[in-house]
Design a protein that fits this description.
Number of strands: 7
Structural class: mainly alpha
Distance between the termini: 85 Å
Mean pLDDT: 78
Order of helices and strands: EEHHHEEEHHHHHHHHEHEH
Helix content: 55-70%
Largest sheet: 3 strands, mixed
Number of helices: 13
Oligomer: single chain
Strand content: 5-15%
Shape: elongated
Amino acid sequence: MLRINTLGGLWVEGSDPGDSPAPKPRRLALLALLAAAGSAGVSRDRLLGVLWPDRDEAKARHALSQTLYSLNRDLGIDATITEPTLRLDSARIQSDLADLEAALDREDADSIARVYRGPFLEGFSLPDLPTFDQWVDAERERLRGRVVAALERALRQEGPKDWRRDAGLAAQLTRLDPLSGRYALRRMEALVALGDRAAALAHARRHVDTVRQELDAEPDPAVLKYVERLRAAGASPAEPAGRAATERAPAPTATQPSRGRSRRARWLGVAGLAVIGILGGWLVRAGRPDRGSSPIVAIGQIRDLASPDSTQVSQILADMLATSLGRLTNVEVVAMSRLLS
């Protein structure tokens, strides 16, 4: 049984042509047209208009007959049925397009994602035949549109969530439209629900880089906001609107401290800095008699261990510490640069 593959390229599997050469490009183009027509077939006039638009009718019909003969010889079988319209003999040759159309008709999202390996006739063209390339573009967009619509409907299905399946469907959608923030966000949500925050952040980085390179613009704000939530240590990302409590992402693991532990660690760190600062000030005072009789506390950079990238939180902590220590009697609060000068 022969099989013609048109998704992600154009090639034939299972043929045994012996000493016959591989089908020439125009013969393959005819094969693709017949595969796209399916069981309904395609008229000769339609084929003539796409493959031989500049020839008169008699010469074009002769060219079609010759191409059909050569194609069957190359394949080693009579792959076509010529009456009443031209079509492939499904008993002798199958196609991935037939499988895709059947999966689309029954809305089988898993089969659609498996069969749709790439765009229709990807990488194949006839530069000297613009009518064929125009037909390819139209067919490619038609198939892509049907695939996207089917996968989106599958993601919107009600009922218990299968996050692994959703992650796979969202991955297929992001391949179809890598610039879509909506698809990127759906994949990130599914990965987080599966407990793989690292993969979600890696996917976000790829999406952000692609958008910036391709569009020279910033990505969807919803994606950036979700990334910030993921990066906040111990914080669980907000659930998408309407999601049931039973579908929530897993709780933080042991390596991700909870919000309560983060706050305790933060204030213990502040207290420790205060003690170290006072002791350090006294030591500096002992070595610098010109500073006066009050102990000196130097306020340097404070890092928020719960969120190392947050400079805003670090500044707030430094200001709070300086204000509190400034109220103490006989304590001089200075900048670190003053002690080092």
